[in-house]
Amino acid sequence: MATPVMNQAADQAAASTRTVTLGKSLNLGLRAAMEADPKVIVMGEDVGKLGGVFRITDGLQKDFGEQRVLDTPLAESGIIGTAVGLAIRGFRPVCEIQFDGFIFPAFDQIVSQVAKLHYRSQGRVTLPMVIRVPFGGGIGAVEHHSESPESYFAHTAGLKVVSCSNAVDAYWMIQQAIRCDDPVLFFEPKRRYYEKGELDVGATPDPLFSSRVLRTGTAATLVSYGPSVKTCLESAAAAAEEGTELEVIDLRALSPMDLTPVFESVRKTGHLVVVSEAPEEASLASEIAARVQQECFYSLEAPVLRVTGFDTPYPPSKLEEDFLPDLDRVLDAVDRSLGW
Amino acid sequence: MATPVMNQAADQAAASTRTVTLGKSLNLGLRAAMEADPKVIVMGEDVGKLGGVFRITDGLQKDFGEQRVLDTPLAESGIIGTAVGLAIRGFRPVCEIQFDGFIFPAFDQIVSQVAKLHYRSQGRVTLPMVIRVPFGGGIGAVEHHSESPESYFAHTAGLKVVSCSNAVDAYWMIQQAIRCDDPVLFFEPKRRYYEKGELDVGATPDPLFSSRVLRTGTAATLVSYGPSVKTCLESAAAAAEEGTELEVIDLRALSPMDLTPVFESVRKTGHLVVVSEAPEEASLASEIAARVQQECFYSLEAPVLRVTGFDTPYPPSKLEEDFLPDLDRVLDAVDRSLGW
Amino acid sequence: MSSPEQWTHPEPGVGPAATAATPTAEQVIAGLRATSEGGPELVQLLTPEGERVPDSRWDPYVADITAEDLRGLYRDMVLTRRVDREANALQRQGQLGIWVPLLGQEAAQVGAGRALKPQDMVFPSYREHGVAWCRDVHPTELLGIFRGTDHGSWDPLAKRFHLYTIVIGNQVLNAAGYAMGQRFEGKVGDDDGEATMVFFGDGATSQGDVHEGFVWASVYDAPLVFFCQNNQWAISEPTERQSRLPLYQRARGYGFPGVRVDGNDVLASLAVSRWALDECRHGNGPVLIEAFTYRMDAHTTTDDPTRYRLADELEAWKLKDPIERVRVNLVRHENADHAFFDEVQAEADQLAAELREFCVNMPDPPKERMFAHVYEDGNPVLAAQRDAYLAYASGFEGGGH
Amino acid sequence: MSSPEQWTHPEPGVGPAATAATPTAEQVIAGLRATSEGGPELVQLLTPEGERVPDSRWDPYVADITAEDLRGLYRDMVLTRRVDREANALQRQGQLGIWVPLLGQEAAQVGAGRALKPQDMVFPSYREHGVAWCRDVHPTELLGIFRGTDHGSWDPLAKRFHLYTIVIGNQVLNAAGYAMGQRFEGKVGDDDGEATMVFFGDGATSQGDVHEGFVWASVYDAPLVFFCQNNQWAISEPTERQSRLPLYQRARGYGFPGVRVDGNDVLASLAVSRWALDECRHGNGPVLIEAFTYRMDAHTTTDDPTRYRLADELEAWKLKDPIERVRVNLVRHENADHAFFDEVQAEADQLAAELREFCVNMPDPPKERMFAHVYEDGNPVLAAQRDAYLAYASGFEGGGH
Ligand SMILES: Cc1ncc(C[n+]2csc(CCOP(=O)(O)OP(=O)(O)O)c2C)c(N)n1
Ligand SMILES: Cc1ncc(C[n+]2csc(CCOP(=O)(O)OP(=O)(O)O)c2C)c(N)n1
Ligand SMILES: [Mg+2]
Ligand SMILES: [Mg+2]
To answer: Where in chain A is the domain with CATH 3.40.50.920?
Structure first.
């Protein structure tokens, strides 16, 4: 399964291919979704005239007007709570939460209404809404601007959670999320907003809820998502120079997870390292470890190891290089796994 | 470690011993804490005149006055946010969240302030506050009254999380939580409020952050907390009748977890089943599985299995018997583990 | 010291700052009155004694109400109450897990409910059985929630009556969003415009979500009527625990009108609701209505109000019963005879019997319901969980487990 | 159509319901003026031209201010601004990750800050560098937050100045709780009473937490001054996106007074803040102050205001500069000479140099800081994580990793 769209695009280098940053790609994807469906609206703090603090919605208000791109009052529960109402009315709201740390005022609406309404109404009410969240650290920001809250949402039944790791996926995944009839938490790796990719808008994307093998290898498997995927690819490249071939899997979908390729990979390599920036305790990394040890019990030659953020609040940014999993920590874990 | 206080109390049957329900025991513990320290205050919805919807704070306002037992306005963020201020001022607030499902409006204050203030202030500000949450299902309630949100808080660095499973622990643990200088989420197994125990108020309790072996066995280990502990004890009793001796461990502390007794047990039994009502994905049960497979890799004769609530919203109560782990599901998992 | 007027209408530079550190007895009384009695601004068209009081501002909104219409409102209230009492009894008999009584709030709800037009949308809280009735949600459709077989069984879109919302305040924001949508779609601006009405209690006004709903609706000129039933209690807490001022005055700080209506007066509730909906459908929303009423029963069947309020209070409010005053008025003006009242009574008994019959025969939900409709587009992980569980559970079939 | 007065003062039965579906030009203008201009209720004691305007209500609160005191306020503002500009420059030069400028808000903050007594407590937002100055938090102590070495390095209890709070609105509830505590401890009721002041912006008023803070403080008569600096922008959003009405009027709905003060007038800010704190320390709290001012720089150093506002606006506000009007007043009344101004300038330069020197020499935090103080009572699981990481990291010592 899962032909890597990235490579496809790079290979073709067709007329429709252009070099874009991940951020720009999201902008193009949002624009395409708004053009395709007049019910798609964008809402959040500063998403209109300013185009969002990361400029992801740049130019959209100018072209689609103030009733489709809403600069909302400053309150996240309000943003999500009114988006629920708009979705009930038949709109497809795409909400921007300005930074990861500011999703918590909306937590109640997300957990109590967004996640449950379809279930409560026995399917009579659908909530096709997307909540975009720039997430993760590595940009030298002040407090509350570098959180990785995705595990909270993966633990919440009724939500779908995805994260893109590169410019090409960003374009497709945001559109697929908007087309999805379930509420989707869309985590954007903010420190990768300026990473470039070759986008072919004529290509056929993978399904939204599929993980993808980005690099094949036989020694051990690395699984990750969002901003850490690049870290894993770099780790694999470094390992390859020393003759160790690592398989790298980009999860893409965090809930539901598509772990089949991971199981297959572990059956082949016998070693798994999960990499994520979020604190470790009761996290998505824990979930992957729990499921892989169950599915691949007899294949594992070492326990599943986790390389994650620490179980501390996000530290002052001068310390974030220590907090965030980096190449060395990933390879250290690989070594520990191989030497188990 | 960890002498079972329950058995101790039962054995002694001293003059100071009395039979109390878990709910009453909490009430006695709160009263003792308020008597011991005038800075302890109780706050929440309906905790005063009514004594709380479960009567856990019954009589406290009458005896300690309206400035130590506050019937607050109806807003959870307000309850927790003002408790933070009161704690900064030197009080030790004990907040009641009326039902598990209503903690979410306070999630932002808990995650952004309660969990982080001590860290942010480099230890200059301590927040000795307790957030009491009646949690879990099994009481035939309507929506939002049967949630098990403990994993969200275990995933949040800076918080401590505990859950009592019986009347005797309830008395000690609530007092220990109030004496703790860190913020503590205190999860009360509401469907066990009427379970009785023999309380000896002269006994010496175990430390708050310690798990406890409640029953020893050699075939397999059951680990659980809160309301499911009783389910596990019943499962072990049933298994014993068929000649299978299960070890049962009550986690008591959910964050940080005291897993040493679990590791020891698994090294002996080779089989572990984790039981919890919360949905499975990215949960405390996942964390336990992840850590045990790492610590006991060579001891496990089968993967760690989880028996949990399903990854659905909490169902209509006529279906909760299917949702909640019961004796049959626990023993089925034990069988699967033993037969792996 | 400060007069009640000053106390309840503080403006910059006028009157004392607020309550004093140790309020005077006068201040306390003024404060209590402010939050718990009508006051001069209470809209009332029908006194507790059934007398019709003229009101130049509000009469036009009920000028078209014929004797037949009034009988209709009476019938709505009687049937609503009968359903409420029957459900309460069903709970006592173990047929329902819990019931949330509306006893005493029939006029507030039926007045509001009958003011609604078909194109309007409603977001209820959890006690709006009377509004449900007016939206053609059959009382039997409410039972699943309280029996534990579902979380709401009517079609919220078809009935234009959203599911009950239990998390206090949530629905206010959802309603604000819906009303914004009505506006964005250009469905606002004339007599046929659409409007939304959202219900919440006095206690709910403290929640951040309710405030944010006020902010959003006012900033987006949403056609939204905030209908606050102040039944004077949030479980055991009286309204003074939520506010210094009468709640309708909350609207002042946001720049939209707030009106306090006698919630035990179905005509007044109808008039004020019609006006408010009209304002909204013409684009002059939002509007806040505080319906001043009283919860004559417990908060829910699991509550014990004797622990926090005096029986006297209830007795006083029985004299203001919302149904009684309409009956007296109908009788006094000879707009209804014995036969009518008997008929309504019979209809009520019939409905109650139907409700009971339906309730005791409700099948338990199938196990599959636990897993159904969590997602619209499916979820393979959950599907596997479901399949495994159903396969496992089928092993117990026949024998109880 | 409706006059501005009606538009901004809707009361039940008076004026139109709210804005019309399609507001008239007049309404739009009235609305904008309502949220973005002072209006008759703006308290001003010193005009932009430096003239002292008499005001019978507010003069008593600054009657004791001598020429020396006024020079002191001038000095506070100049030093505050110098620190702000230096920090801004340090950010441009890569010495700080970000800076949050207060340019233009010096008078609001210094007026409030100097009204505080030592026993009072303060909960700032993230832009209160001027208030910090008045609480003896040295400007160097602010730098860690913006350089990324810590999340706040002063002692909030010793300085009675809480840490900066970035999550909009959170601190308002924390402050309400603290003020409740002051009251519970009996520290309220006379001239020596304690009070709390909490700072937040115009945008923050939309947050549920701010509302709940209003509810709690009013219900518990907390000695809390809500100090809202309306700098007319929440990043790119003008105040109209948050409210139809001037923000000081929000207090009306809760039953405590709200006052709008010229936030560029240090005397007026001082007078109103003293009055408000006095009310609170005597037990008449809470009180809302809206300081009407203007953010003359970007939201933060990462913001680009040219994308959302016109240069004209800034030019107009430069004429209302808070420092300039005090300088003119001092000169006109010969209360300060060249030597004074030169001295202050020199002191400012000295302080700036000190700040710069401190900043560029700030050591990177030790790795242990990441793990320190997560818990007061310790956590063995985290301790193990720390030990393992520090042991691992020590393997890289010497070589960069
Ligand atoms: C967020 C939240 N907190 C607490 C509760 C528990 N609770 C249910 S009803 C209620 C009181 C509500 O009072 P009010 O808003 O006046 O409505 P009423 O029940 O009187 O109609 C409370 C505290 C809840 N449902 N939701
Ligand atoms: C809960 C939350 N949401 C969003 C943000 C991002 N943010 C930081 S400042 C700001 C605007 C604040 O405006 P205002 O309250 O007027 O204060 P000002 O910055 O103008 O002083 C926003 C949206 C935040 N810090 N917290
Ligand atoms: Mg009520
Ligand atoms: Mg602002």
So the answer is: 212-338
Token pair 């610590």 is found at: B295
Neighbours of ion ligand 3 (CB under 5 A): C 201-202, 231, 234
Work out the minimum CA distance from C195 to partner chain A, whole angstroms: 12
In this prediction, the residues of chain D whose per-residue pLDDT falls under 70 are 1-40, 398-401
pLDDT tens per residue, range C176-191: 999 999 999 999 999 9
Architecture (CATH level 2) of domain B21-200: 3-Layer(aba) Sandwich (3.40)
D210: nearest CA in chain A?
A75
Q: What is the pTM assigned to this prediction?
A: 0.95
Per-residue pLDDT tens digits for A59-109: 999 999 999 999 999 999 999 999 999 999 999 999 999 999 999 999 999
Most ligand 2 atoms within 8 A of CB, residue of D127, D299, D301, D309 to mutate = D299
* D382/A71 CB distance under 8 A: no
Cα–Cα distances in angstroms (integers) from residue B173 to residues B17, B227, D351, in the given order: 17, 15, 53
Chain B residues closer than 8 Å to A310 by CB: 157
Facing D167 at nearest CB: one of B108, B160, B257: B108
Query: What separation in angstroms does the CA of C37 have from each of C7, C154, C259, C269?
Result: 14, 36, 14, 16
Residue C207 Cα: closest atom of ligand 1:
1
Ligand 1 atom closest to Cα of residue C234: 13
Show the domains of chain D with their CATH numbers.
4-17+28-360 (3.40.50.970), 366-401 (no CATH)
Hey, whose CA ends up nearest to atom 21 of ligand 1?
A: C201
Calculate the CA A134 to chain-centre distance: 9
Q: N- to C-terminal Cα distance for chain A?
A: 31
Q: What kind of fold does domain B212-338 have according to CATH?
A: Rossmann fold (3.40.50)
Nearest Cα neighbor of B229 from B295, B136, B316, B305 is B136
* C-beta of C203 in contact with ligand 1 (< 6 A): yes
Q: Where in chain B is the domain with CATH 3.40.50.970?
A: 21-200
Q: Is C160 in the pocket of ligand 1 (CB under 6 A)?
A: no
Q: How many CB atoms are located within 10 Å of the residue B154 CB?
A: 26
What's the ipTM? 0.95
